Amino acid sequence: MSGFAEYRPGAGRQVVDVVVRAAVDADLTRCAELIVSRTGGPVDVRRARLVADLERPDRYTVVAEIDGEVVGYALVLRHQISPTDPPNTAPGGYYLIGLIVAPEHRRHGIGELLTQERIRWTAERADEVYYFANVANGATLDLHLSFGFTEVTRDFSFPNAPLKPGTCVLLRAPISR
Which positions make up the signal peptide (predicted)? Predict the structure, then answer.
């Protein structure tokens, strides 16, 4: 099992009433549960990282909720290159990362709404945005291509990301203000 959403291009979208908003502390346990359902690990450790993300002004955590229940999570962060980073480190800038929607709520356009909101927030700070994904994750790649992302490289590293050479693609999209 890859942990990615099942790739079903052209699948019918169900309409639901979704609220997309900035995350607050009360959302973080549910966000951590969503993350570890895909990546594994302890919820409390993941929650602690999410608390740290909320405290940083160069990061934006966003959630999607249906009937008051958090069903999706996503983050945008600002990456800065360090002099000690390897030469193939991804460029500095804002990155969309961590898009996760609960399996029972996929195919409702929630990932699109979370991505749209993160791009809106980033547009207030930058003229472009980056994203990287595993090349096998067709669902997320198609989603991001629909927002104008294009491939930059497949030969890159990103701090603290367990990327295996040749398995991921770095994409970039211009942002209109």
Answer: none
Taking each helix axis from N to C terminus, what angle separates 43-54 and 28-39, rounded to the nearest 10 degrees? 130
In total, how many domains does the chain have?
A: 1
126 by Cβ neighbours in 10 Å (0-12 / 13-18 / 19+) ranks as: middle
Rg of the chain's alpha carbons, rounded to an integer?
A: 16
Residue 68 lies in a domain: yes
What is the longest distance spanned by two Cα atoms in the chain? 47
Owning domain of residue 94: 19-126
Question: What number of helices (H) and strands (E) belong to the chain?
Answer: 4, 7
pTM of the predicted structure, to 2 decimals: 0.88
Q: Which residues of 26-68 form beta strands (DSSP E)?
A: 59-66
- Domain contains 2: no
150 belongs to a structural domain:
no
Q: pLDDT of 67-124, one tens digit each?
A: 999 999 999 999 999 999 999 999 999 999 999 999 999 888 999 999 999 999 999 9
Would the pLDDT of 1 be above 50?
A: no
Instruction: Kindly list the distances between the CA atom of residue 41 and the CA atoms of 31, 36, 139, in Å, as whole numbers in the listed order.
Output: 13, 6, 24
Nearest residue to 169 (alpha-carbon basis) of 128, 139, 126, 136: 136
Residue 76: what residue type?
V
